[in-house]
Each structure stands twice: as structure tokens, then as C-alpha cells.
Amino acid sequence: MKRVPSVLLILPCLAAVPALATVVVNSPHNGESVNSNVQYIASANTTCQAGVAAMGIYVDNTLMYQVGGTSLNTNLNLSPGQHHTVVQEWDHCGGATTTAIELSVNNQVGVVVTSPANGSTVGDPTAFIATATTSCSRGVSSTGIYVNNQLLYVTPGNKLNTQLNLGGGAHTAVVQEWDGCGGAEKTPVTFNVGGGAPPPNPPPGNPPPGNGGGGSVYNLQADNNWKIWGELPPKDNVCSPCRGLNWSMNKHNGSVSLDGNSTQYGLSGSTPYADVLFYNDVIGDGNTGNLKDSDHKLIPTLHNFTLDTNVFIPNLGVTQSLELDINMYIYGVGMEWGTQCAYLGDHSWDIWDNVSAHWFSTGVPCQLNNNTWNHITIQVQRESNNNLLYKTISVNGVTHTINQTVAPFHVPGNWWGMTINYQMDGNYTESEYQTYLDKTTFTYW
Questions:
Q1: Lower Cβ count inside 10 Å, N or C end of the chain?
Q2: What global pTM score does this model have?
Q3: Euclidean distance between CA atoms 32 and 29, whole angstroms
Q4: Could you tell me if 121 and 270 lie in one domain?
Q5: Which residues neighbour 272 within 8 Å (Cβ) at sequence distance 6 or greater?
């Protein structure tokens, strides 16, 4: 789609006469070189009789800040490098206008917090994403998060990407790095936890939660609702038991764990390229907890999903592929957000095309760490027409924007629910290997 360079756009309104809207950005200026803490000051007006509903800021195609009304004044912490940012207004007539601001952020020493944005309203759990740099020759040793003067999270290295459950209300956080020379740098962030509800008239593709609300399923790897089956090549025929394929699943593991409650998954056998699928009916039919949705009032309201987990891989050299899926089935419509690290395949993160039933590469290299924990976060969305939007994949603190859309598919029968899948694929000799999952959270709204 051709990008319209002008600030003035002709937009549809509820009446027959189109509305003329303007977004004026006073700070920062287009093409400006700035420090990491960037102040955005902007205002908007429109000829739509109902007025401007909300304004927001996109950074590299990700919505980082929204506020109701005709103006905004906030600071965003941006990582060093080039950024494409867009300030947008949404009016009550269904229209939207944007002004693009290209920025160059200086590579300075300190902590850059890209989420949560300073002064923003966020959901619970709250996503924290940050990167630290130092002039110390020994580099950054670790980074951590203080919330309301309590240290809640620490991770080795100069990057963090995690979610914390904080509860509603105003919070003050400090993201801090400790370097190998005994020094430390910190960046404070203030924000409000408001449950994740969007402002009035959110942009297309970000529908409101609806009456069903949202929630999270924590420590999913230790849940009692997991089931297992095998898949045999060449057509991934489902089987249980399976010829030449064995599997194992051992929960509440304490020896290889972040919190003493990991789950070990195992694959072995003699059939090359055979796979093992572990799946959990998290909502709807098959759920054994409190999310049966028997009256079908919850799932239709859900449009946004995040799967956050930690994966330990003792032997990457024999790990063909690891797959993480979020699946929804309603009204005879199937939506499968399949995401896999094809480590011994095309060496990239692949996503699943529901209609043609095949994987295709995102172009993002799959770079996992051997014999240590890898933090992975997948964000997807169900659009208003049931198309599937793959939004982002975050691996060990680095977030990759995907923004790929695929169509749903027809599902025979009337099965109704959502599942989470974890799949281990065998290599050409079906080498035995194990993996571990820990602190796995599924969030929906």
C-alpha cells in the first residue's frame, strides 16, 4: 500500500461529508538526532463533528502509547539507532490521520526502557523490555527491575524482556544495570496499571476486549491438563502409541529450573523426522479448570494473545525444530498461530499459513542459546474478520516485528475452544533429546 506523504488526509466520517484532520507534532522534529528519552508533544484537530477520540505513537510499527483527547505530551525511551515513528489521531467518525517522524537515537551509556512507556497506562501483567550499555570494558553483568522500591527481577546480561504481575494502580519502576567494573546506571519509569483496556476508538486491528474481559494462565507448563500425541512422516499422521517414536513429560522439575517447577519434555525413537505434540485445552471444550466457556460468551470477545515462556535446550545440535502454537476454534472457523524455530531446517523463525497448510520463513534468524535458558515471547492477534495477525517474536530481550497476516480455515464439526501447543521435532536419525519449559504464561484479552 502506498504511504501518503501529506499530513492532511481525507477521511470517512459518519456523515456523507468527509472529515479533514491534521496532526501537528511540536516535538521531536522529523530527521532529528535525539537522546534515548524522547519527548513527544503533539495535537490534532478534525472537521468530524464528534471530534478527536484519541491519539497515539507508533515506534517501528508497534503502538507504544495511546491517550484519549486531542493532545499528547509524554516521554518514550527508545533504543539507540534509527527509528520510524508515527503520531496518529483517531476521530469519532471512524477516521485516522498520521504524521511520520524519523529519528536517530544516540548510542549513549545507560539503560533504555522501551516498555512500559513513561506515563502510559498498561495491562497486568506488565511487559518490561530494556537494553543497557556501559563504558566498562567488562560489559554489563546483569539488569534488574525495582518496582515501588522492591527488587522484583534480575537477569544476567544487558537485556531483559519479562512480564511482572503488579496489580492495578500507579507504580514507579527503576530498571537498573550493574556492570563488571562495580558501576550501575538506572532509568526510572512511572506508569499506571489499568487492566489493559484500550482508549476510546482504538485503531483498526486492535479491537476492544469486549464483555468477556481477559486474563492469564500462569505456570502453564505445570498444568494437569496436558495431552500428548505423536506425528509420523511424511504427512504428520497422528498416532498414540507410535511406531518408532517415544516421548516423556516430567513435571515439577527442580534440577533444571528457574523456580523449581519446570517441566521436562523428551523425544526418542527410530523413525526419522517423527514429532511429538504436547497440547493443553486452556479455554473451552476440554478444559478441566474454570475456563470451560460452556455458554460461549468468553472466546468470541478475545482478540489479543501473548505466550511467554522460558526454554532450556541441553543439546541444540540434534534439535530439528521447536514449535509454540496458539490455536482458536469457534463457529466452525479455525485459527492456528503456529510459530517454530526451525533450527536445523531453514535456521529461521517460521510461521504457519492456515489455508495452504505450510510453513514460511519470517526472515528472522532462529538464534537460541545452548544449555541455558532462552526467554521467548510471542504476540498475535485475531482481527475483526478472523484473519490471523502475527505481531512480534521476542527472544532473549530482542523483539522482532513480524506483522504478517494469514487467513483462517474451515473446521468441520462444532469443537469450541483454545489450545496451546508445544512440539518437539525429530531430526534425520531421530536422535534422543530433552527440553525444559518454565514460567510459561498465556495472556488473553
A1: N
A2: 0.56
A3: 5
A4: no
A5: 233, 426, 427, 428, 429, 430
